Amino acid sequence: MLQQRKTESMALKSYKPTTPGQRGLVLIDRSELWKGRPVKSLTEGLTKNGGRNNTGRITMRRKGGGAKRLYRIVDFKRTKFDVAATVERIEYDPNRTAFIALVKYADGEQAYILAPQRLGVGDTVIASAKADVKPGNAMPFSGLPIGTIIHNIELKPGKGGQIARAAGTYAQFVGRDGGYAQIRLSSGELRLVRQECMCTVGAVSNPDNSNQNFGKAGRNRHKGIRPSVRGVVMNPVDHPHGGGEGRTSGGRHPVSPWGKPTKGARTRNKNKASQKLIIRSRHAKKKGR
């Protein structure tokens, strides 16, 4: 077995072109992560659906195949208050881009949480009404100082974190407004959430995730991602951009296979209840506001 030669940079590994698949290959260096299997009581089976719904129709294109996964039950709610927990290990999770941390509470209970940046093995984390501002600690906005970088943010109290959970993402707590907290999201959106909502201090781990280069199509197939075929190479029966003699460029503004404008057309419902909680849209910077 030829030892894979690679050059080390911070958390990325770039490989020498010893084979066609290694040429240009840039991957995350996962040597610091736990090498064993996940905690069995914190896992569930995960069945594949190949992008089909309960009637067997494809509702999400370009999905199917891929390696078998175990679902890790991650605690997004952090409702175990005032019990300190020690980080046992940082693990890889195939179901998300971020890494997860196995924490063990003082009473012996174990849980997986999203691992923030600069959280290491042996660190203690706690969830309480007013905790220290250090990565991994969770608290409601009411106990948080303004200006803090946060992730895993709830939109409804007690529902569990929904915003800023992907690798390297974070939001910033920028102010209070009545019973609401103002947060600036990574998209540029400025919005309000209730001050009772929980959030976790720090930015999510694995910020180099977006700098990977998989080097070959097969690596995307392992992830369960199938090829995407462009509309202009299809026939007119399959896509509005299809057909034409020779190579054509579509001949109309880009649309989806169902004729809806794509690439920038607004689709958000103006009458949504949460519309009034958005102070500044993520599209505002495009308008030059």
Description:
The strands form 4 sheets. This protein has a 7-stranded antiparallel beta sheet with strand order 10-15-11-12-13-14-16, with no helix packed on it. The chain has a 4-stranded antiparallel beta sheet with strand order 8-7-6-9, with no helix packed on it. A 3-stranded antiparallel beta sheet has the order 1-2-3, with no helix packed on it. It has helices spanning 217-222, 284-287, and strands spanning 6-8, 12-15, 26-28, 43-45, 70-72, 85-91, 100-105, 110-114, 124-125, 138-140, 149-151, 171-177, 180-184, 190-194, 198-201, 278-280. The protein is 3% helix and 23% strand. It folds into 2 domains: 40-207, Nucleic acid-binding proteins (OB fold (Dihydrolipoamide Acetyltransferase, E2P)), CATH 2.40.50; 231-276, Ribosomal protein L2, domain 3 (Irregular), CATH 4.10.950.10. The mean pLDDT is 93. The relative contact order is 0.13. The chain has 289 residues and is mainly beta. The protein contains 2 helices and 16 strands. One of its GO terms (molecular function) is rRNA binding. Residues 263-289 have a biased composition (Basic residues). Residues 133-261 form the Large ribosomal subunit protein uL2 C-terminal domain. One of its GO terms (biological process) is cytoplasmic translation.
Strands, helices and their partners?
Layout: E1 6-8, E2 12-15, E3 26-28, E4 43-45, E5 70-72, E6 85-91, E7 100-105, E8 110-114, E9 124-125, E10 138-140, E11 149-151, E12 171-177, E13 180-184, E14 190-194, E15 198-201, H1 217-222, E16 278-280, H2 284-287
Antiparallel strand pairs: 1-2, 2-3, 4-5, 6-7, 6-9, 7-8, 10-15, 11-12, 11-15, 12-13, 13-14, 14-16
